[in-house]
Write a structure and sequence with these properties.
This protein has 1276 residues and is an alpha/beta fold. Helices cover 56% and strands 10% of the residues. The chain has a 6-stranded mixed β-sheet with strand order 5-4-3-2-1-6, sandwiched between helices. A 6-stranded mixed β-sheet has the order 7-9-10-11-8-12, with helices on both faces. A hairpin with a 4-residue loop joins strand 2 and strand 3. GO terms for molecular function: ATP binding.
């Protein structure tokens, strides 16, 4: 602005004597009526000054001006770009009182601001009369300056006028700096003569040819942010230009700009580097805005011969530390900038001259020695991602509700991020240029490798380095440098000997760029690629490739038939083709579901029923059942069957026969499918002679044989029987099974009216040794069904030593009659999971889409929950339109069912990998929460039938599971720190509803009091008041129940401490803890039966008790008992642990328990027939038991010696002697184990078990207080 005033003064356009630049914002124009000018700057991207901001600036400027005490001066406030909503500020010399009308928004705003600042009405009027406000853009001011100077210095070329205007800015800045510390009376000024002299001196001294040469030759151009480029497609991906920065489109990167400024100061040369499209150019053009005092030139080309002209230009501008010049070079190191290293050396040697350049990773090597440069890596960060998204959304260039999911999937790549939001063309154009350069430079190995890697990666596969080298026709050593270059350029990744793409979108762009202008064709590349893929990769590659390019099916068909393919490769091709066949079927099923009116939320369960063939339960809507019937009847493509037919049964029989890997053979048989009788016949014929497979069957484990037989049985039972015979027949298999599980005491096949039955009995004497009883019999039952294909079901039971059933009370453990139709092989289960993942690829929606769709529904749900909660609590519907409310609930239910399942992978990917959970897409948490409320809780609140069941469902399902899962959704993708307020509101209301319903479940007569509390205020607070009353009531009821139970103790002469659950935790089975203070554990052993009987007599329906003795103020956890219908060991204190004092430490008891358990195991083994005891597994169990017994005895030996420890030691010694008698055959084998297990399961006591129980009490008393322990026992 000072330079413009100077130009006006020189040209005679400003009637003044002199200018006095005084600082950053102040200029004084001295004349007969002097003027004080204050300048307010504003960035281009911020637009016009808001009215309120401008008013504050004007009032503040007036107050500051008034403090100067120069009453003869008027005030002019200049606003860069002007003020919003005000057009009357275009004249430099007209006061506000004359330029603004009485009803001008700016005038009213100034008056209001002045009033707030304490100015009186007369002072405000003085401000308006003595102040001029002028609005102009820098572009307009610069243009006017050049025009005025051109009229004065007519011989100057237009380009030189720019430099003269800059010289005036430097002169004004110089005087302002000198005046900053100087009193006004000693200030320096610029009159017209001085300004003209300085201009003339500049013209005489400056080499005008040098000023223009570099520019006219096209080497450089002055950088200007004065011409904004408002490009509507900027965020869809275009090459960033300075005008984009001027238009405010470029995201400020303050941290990186700060690094660049620091780098300039330290090294004079800064390089911004990163992969293509990451935002290097945007940062380059943004740096000049942070250094406005620098003269910036954009270097357009730079050969070594161009460097002298550029230096001549800089010297003509008198470059120095006080007059810095910056050179901006975009894409340094490429063909147009081969002189970069020469220029860098000159820059380093020239004070005040510096350069900022951009360079891709792969171009850095061409720049030479970078030791004297500052290198700054540029990547996409969250702030930039959010700003890009906001820019796209403001221009309606994206349909995505939020940016974070795309950002997380982009991996720091700006091109991929923008592409995911817009599907723009920038990614393609950048990658195409990278490929074009390699073609031009004949970098054929890189192109070959990229064609293979990108094609594999775009369809979910990766390539081993050794196979990639072979496919490219080079050695692994020769491939090392191309891999390094491509990795540097972010075109591929090599990790642990495997090559993959950087990002699927980038790989797609690379593959398209290579194959859009063949050679090579896509088909040619795939033919080269397939032999390079591991079989597991082929399985993933085929369905994803066919999804995008279905016309490739013949190529894959032919590749599958390649004679070089063995069993492993054939399996992979068949599975890949079957997966795509099912993908097409899933698409068809989706159409069927839509036609049948199945909402998206129910489609996954419908497809699950269709996949598994399970019957649809009656409680599902009719349309689901009809859709499933249509789905199962719909035809399926048969690409896999076509390959099987084309290859022929003999080919597969030979492939099977020649493999010696049973897992491979089993997987290939599974892919051949059901009903392939021709293959079964051919296999039986081929297997009539020795083969690697049959030899492998004979040496295989029983589990491997079982998998092979059950898979063969699904093709043809006679084929399965062939494998049984090959393994030596049923007798040989039984021997293998006994060897696999030496605890089996009986094993045979028996006939029954329902067909042959696999009958087995197995010894069980320790859960620690054998595992969970139920899991054990199920595993054995499955093994038997799979090994013996002619059986229809099994009869498997566990038996305890002594021949007793494993039974606790009346409950039978360890027994199964598993039928064949309910046994599904691991391959069947895996196939079902893979198909569910394919279903997910068809039905799934991204998290951002799901959450954005659910958000308004959750708002509505929160509102309806509050309305219904208040209405329910007050039993008053007068404040609501019930018909409208029912319509709202129904509408919400319908909308919630439109939310599909969560996509378990990236878009465009048929993902068949993952754990068991990743395949589960049955219930979407968001849809599930809303529909559980609309279809279950809301209707049941109107009738309140069975409030206990409602409370249990609310507590255990809706709040604990559905709501919690909804809250755990990735809400950060929509910008939430935790989860939306609507979910917090729903949670609060549901807890309040639960409190009321739970109180009614406990006492229906409480209804009147709860309604009265609800109506004791405004309707909006009805639920809250009722819930508070319900909680008070529940606390009173719990206290009353606690008192009752404590009274039971008093009646027994015992002191009970009763703990109840928290009042916000509803339990259908109400749990109570009864802690009993005892003076000794002997008293506890005598009192326990009496205590349990009394508590059981006083118990209410649905109560469960944990009873634990308290000694010396601490619980004795090992003696805790559980009481429902019978008294059983509790195992631990569970949820009550934190409510009690820390339990006693019991090292002696723990050692005794471990010793008894070891003796039980060693004795239990002796219940086996003697021939079985030499088995390796049995021998190891015995060895471990004896080792643990010795360790426990050592702990006992290390304990303080007294009567109790001596007694315990004697007991263990006597038990060990009894074990030796069992081993010697002098007593029944397994007798010790039998007695101990009968005590634990049936409560049967013997002299041995009583002795063990007493010893355990001794050990516990000793652990609690060894000083007094002996007095409780009569010890000889």
């Amino acid at each position: 602005m000072a330079a413009w005033l100077a130009a006006r003064l020189i040209a005679g356009d400003l009637h003044a004597q002199r200018l006095v630049p005084e600082g950053f914002e102040d200029v004084t124009i001295e004349s007969e009526t002097s003027r004080h000018v204050q300048i307010k700057s504003r960035g281009e991207h911020l637009g016009l000054f808001p009215m309120g901001t401008a008013s504050s600036h004007i009032v503040n400027a007036w107050l500051r001006h008034r403090e100067r005490g120069r009453k003869s001066e008027s005030l002019t406030v200049v606003f860069e770009r002007g003020i919003e909503g005000e057009t009357g500020i275009s004249r430099f010399d007209t006061s506000l009182s004359n330029s603004l009308s009485q009803d001008s928004p700016l005038r009213l705003s100034i008056s209001a601001t002045a009033l707030k600042r304490g100015l009186k009405e007369g002072e405000t009027q003085e401000l308006l009369e003595g102040t001029t406000v002028y609005g102009a853009s820098w572009a307009a001011v610069e243009k006017d300056s050049r025009t005025l100077l051109g009229a004065t210095f007519e011989r100057l070329q237009p380009a030189a006028l720019n430099y003269l205007a800059r010289e005036l800015r430097l002169v004004a800045a110089e005087i302002a700096m000198l005046n900053a510390p100087t009193a006004y009376t000693h200030r320096q000024s610029l009159d017209r003569s001085e300004l003209t002299r300085r201009c003339q001196h500049f013209i005489e001294q400056v080499d005008l040819d040098a000023l223009e040469a570099a520019v006219t030759l096209g080497l450089c151009s002055p950088l200007s942010h004065a011409e904004p480029m408002h490009d509507e497609r900027f965020y869809e991906g275009v090459a960033t230009q300075p005008g984009h920065v001027a238009a405010g489109l470029v995201v400020p990167r303050a941290d990186l700009i700060g690094e660049a400024v620091t780098g300039i100061q330290e090294t004079s040369s800064v390089i911004l580097t990163g992969p293509s499209g990451v935002g290097k150019s945007a940062l380059l053009w943004s740096v000049p805005q942070a250094l406005p005092g620098v003269l910036w030139f954009r270097v357009n080309r730079l050969s070594p011969a161009d460097v002298p002209e550029i230096l001549r230009l800089c010297r003509s501008h008198r470059v120095s530390d006080a007059n810095p010049i910056g050179l901006l070079i975009d894409a340094a190191g490429t063909g147009l900038f081969e002189g970069w290293s020469v220029l860098r050396e000159e820059v380093a040697a020239t004070p005040g001259l510096f350069s900022i350049s951009t360079s891709r990773h792969e171009d850095l090597i061409s720049l030479g020695d970078l030791s004297g440069c500052t290198t700054i890596g540029v990547t996409l960060d969250e702030d930039a991602a959010e700003a890009i998204f906001n820019g796209l959304r403001d221009r309606n260039a994206t349909d995505s509700p939020y940016w974070r999911e795309a950002y997380e999937q982009a991996g720091g790549l700006t091109l991929e991020f923008t592409h995911m939001l817009t599907r723009g063309q920038r990614l393609s154009s950048v990658v195409t240029e990278q490929i074009r350069r390699r073609v031009a430079e004949r970098r054929n190995v890189e192109l070959n490798l990229l064609s293979l890697t990108a094609t594999a990666d775009q369809w979910s596969a990766s390539i081993p380095v050794n196979r990639a080298a072979e496919a490219c026709g080079v050695s692994q050593l020769e491939l090392r440098e191309p891999i390094a270059r491509l990795a540097e350029e972010h075109l591929l990744i090599e990790r642990n000997g495997t090559i993959s793409g950087v990002h699927q979108l980038r790989s797609i762009a690379i593959s398209n760029a290579i194959h859009d202008q063949p050679p090579p064709t896509l088909e040619h590349t795939i033919n080269r690629l397939l032999p390079a893929l591991e079989p597991e990769q082929i399985k993933r590659f085929i369905p994803n490739a066919l999804r995008d390019e279905p016309e490739l099916d013949q190529l894959f068909h032919d590749a599958a038939l390649d004679e070089r393919n063995g069993a492993v490769e054939l399996t992979a091709y068949l599975r890949g083709l079957r997966l795509f066949d099912f993908y097409e079927r899933a698409l068809n099923w989706n159409s069927i579901a839509q036609q049948r009116g199945v909402p998206p939320a129910h489609e996954p369960i419908a497809q699950l029923f269709a996949i598994t063939g399970a019957a649809v339960p009656d409680f599902f809507p009719d349309e689901v059942g009809r859709a499933v019937s249509d789905m199962t009847a719909a035809p399926e493509a048969a690409r896999g069957s076509t390959v099987i037919s084309a290859a022929g049964a003999q080919r597969f029989a030979e492939a099977l026969a020649t493999t010696d890997d049973l897992r491979v053979a089993t997987e290939l048989l599974f892919e051949l499918g059901r009903g392939e009788t021709e293959i079964a016949s051919e296999c039986q014929s081929r297997f009539s002679t020795p083969s690697p497979l049959l030899e492998a069957v004979q040496r295989a484990t029983v589990e491997q044989v079982a998998d092979l037989v059950v898979t063969a049985n699904s093709i043809d039972p006679s084929l399965a029987q062939t494998f049984v015979v090959s393994s030596g027949g049923e007798a040989a298999l039984m021997a293998k099974i006994r060897d696999y599980d030496p605890w089996i005491s009986e094993l045979r096949i028996v006939d029954s009216a329902d067909g042959p039955v696999a009958y087995a009995r197995s010894l069980h004497f320790s859960d620690a040794v054998h595992g969970d009883p139920h899991d054990r019999v199920i595993a054995l039952g499955r093994l038997l069904l799979r090994c013996f294909p002619r059986t229809t079901h099994v009869d498997v039971k566990l038996v305890l030593p002594g021949g007793h059933d494993y039974q606790i009370g009346e409950h039978q453990l360890g027994s199964t009659n598993l039928r064949r139709e309910y046994d599904h092989s691991e391959l069947e289960v895996a196939w079902n999971r893979e198909r569910m993942r394919v279903t997910n690829a068809v039905l799934g929606a991204t998290d951002t889409e799901r959450l954005a769709a659910a958000l308004p529904l959750l708002d509505t749900t929160a509102q309806l929950t509050t309305i219904l909660g208040n209405t329910f609590a007050a039993a008053d519907v007068r404040s609501v339109d019930t018909n409208q409310l029912a319509d709202q609930i129904n509408s919400l239910d319908d909308q919630a069912k439109q939310i599909g399942p969560r996509l378990n992978s990236r878009e465009r990917v048929i993902n068949i990998d993952g754990d068991k959970e990743s395949g589960s897409v049955i219930t979407d948490p968001l849809s599930g929460l809303v529909t559980d409320l609309t279809g279950n809780i809301f209707p049941r609140l109107t009738t309140l039938d069975n409030p206990a069941a409602i409370a249990a469902h609310l507590s255990d399902q809706v709040i604990a599971k559905s709501l919690r899962r909804a809250q755990e959704e990735p809400w950060h993708l929509l910008g939430y720190d935790t989860f939306p307020e609507s979910l917090k509101s729903i949670e609060s209301d549901l807890h309040n509803i639960l409190a009321v319903v739970a109180a009614l479940a406990a006492d229906s007569s409480a209804n009147v009091g709860l309604i009265r509390a609800a109506r004791a205020g405004g309707h909006q607070g009805a639920l809250r008041r009722s819930a508070e009353a319900a909680r008070r009531l529940t606390r009173r009821q719990l206290q009353a129940r606690k008192t009752q139970l404590e009274q039971v103790g008093k009646d027994l002469g015992q002191q009970f401490r009763v703990l109840m659950p928290k009042d916000d935790q509803y339990q259908l089975v109400s749990e109570r803890l009864v802690a009993v203070d005892v003076s000794s554990l002997i008293d506890w052993s005598y009192a326990l039966e009496e205590i349990s009987t009394a508590i059981q007599d006083a118990g209410l329906p649905g109560e469960k008790f944990t009873i634990v003795p308290i000694r010396n103020g601490k619980p004795v956890a090992p003696l805790a008992m559980s009481l429902i219908s019978s008294l059983l060991p509790a195992g631990d204190l569970g949820q009550w642990t934190s409510s009690l004092a820390e339990a006693h430490e019991t090292p002696l008891t723990d050692a005794l328990d471990a010793a008894i358990a070891s003796l039980q195991v060693a004795s239990g083994v002796l219940a086996l027939p003697e021939a079985h005891r030499s088995h390796g597994i049995v021998d190891q169990v015995v060895e471990n038991a004896k080792h643990e017994f010795i360790q426990s005895r050592q702990i006992l030996e290390q304990s303080s010696r007294d009567a109790i420890t001596e007694q315990i030691a004697q007991l263990l010694d006597s038990l060990n002697d009894a074990l030796l008698d069992e081993e010697a055959g002098e007593s029944a084998g397994g007798d010790i184990a039998s007695q101990l297990l009968q005590m634990m399961t049936q409560g049967h006591q013997t002299e041995l078990t009583v002795a063990v129980s007493v010893a355990r009490l001794m050990a516990l008393e000793w652990d609690i207080d060894r000083e007094t322990a002996e007095q409780f026992f009569e010890i000889d």
